[in-house]
Structure prediction request, 404 residues.
Amino acid sequence: MLIMQALSPKTSLLEQEKYRESILQDETRMDRVCGIAESL
Amino acid sequence: MNPSCRIAVCIPAYRESSLLRNTLENYTIHQVTSDRKPLDPELFEINILINSPHRNSVRDIVMLEVIEEFCADYPQYHINVAEVVYDFPDKAVMGLIFKDIADAVIHRNLSRDVTDEEKSRLILRTAGADVEALNPLLLSRTLGIFADTTIVAHRGETRLPPQLLESFPLLHVMQTFAVYLLRQFKGNQTTNGPFSYTAEAYAAVDGFDPNMKISEEVDLANRIFMYSRESEEDLIFFCDDVKDVINNPRRQVHALFGGIGMAGRYRDFGTLQNEEKVHNMSLSWRDICSELLPDSCLLTPENLSREVSGYYRTYLRIAVGKKIPLETIDVIFGRWFELCRITEYSTHRSSFMCDNHIEIHHID
Prediction:
């Protein structure tokens, strides 16, 4: 139960971390996104 | 990203110098709490992505000056700016532009020094730079709504300026019709206009579709809605009818004045010639008054038939593509006529798509 709660999409970061991983694996996308993130 | 930031507003902007100042004011100095005090600037940030669709596009210095001037006038707000030059072979691809700025915000969110729970509950709001007016309670209301951790997205109502609709009845009727059709075919969550969503829900559906030239927000809203519905966590895409946004009506006005028709207003979206004409309407729509409307823009059976027929062909095409019985389209259109008390009309179907039309004989 506690484990389920920890993984709940309401409070977990799993999806964002997975998503960022997919950005970082694509070199072109990573360059652009990181470039924008640094400027912001 | 500042540690207290709860809402990241993301605004892509291209040649919006005439409207951007008003948009920024609406998202900052006009935002208040329920007891009418200014909303704490630490609770949100505005991210502007100045984008040029082609390598040879001229850098918009005026827009940069507008932002600089605003930041000098109101240094308490977090206004962040990035510039990107794309190299689209043809029209701008809005899905990619929105995805880039939202993805950059996710990247920054994960790098900031706050608890995982706070990172998971960051709210994103992707919007246009052509806001006419915002509900002054929009951001504080958004914070209140998302305090319920089962809510992953929220959409209020987006409207056109009431003073324009009063003097332009054909636009009023067609705008209502366009929203009715979206609601009937796709559901409340996809009616046009910006909406807010958690960073976690955005990531869960893989963000914006980078291949969508237009309707990228409708598509994202649909996928977040499906995600909430299929989750085992009872997640909610919350929709209400509170008026949150009044948008600049330039695209609709251009479509009706230019004879393109409301249904075709995004057909040439992103082409230089079309955008030039749309931008010229950014402020001039304010001069419209009922006495000066051209004949083609009056609320007559002929003009209404022309406009409704444009949507009829669009939705017949969708029905063919999605293998929906064509009678469904007739039923949905018929229901709207009933709601408007239009009883004298006839539907003409043809095997040639361009010949399909609806003729309205009389408006009461």
About this structure: Confidence is low (pLDDT under 50) at residues 1-6 of chain A. Helices of chain A lie at 2-6, 14-25, 27-39. Residues 21 and 35 of chain A are 16 Å apart (CA to CA). The two ends of chain A are 40 Å apart (CA to CA).
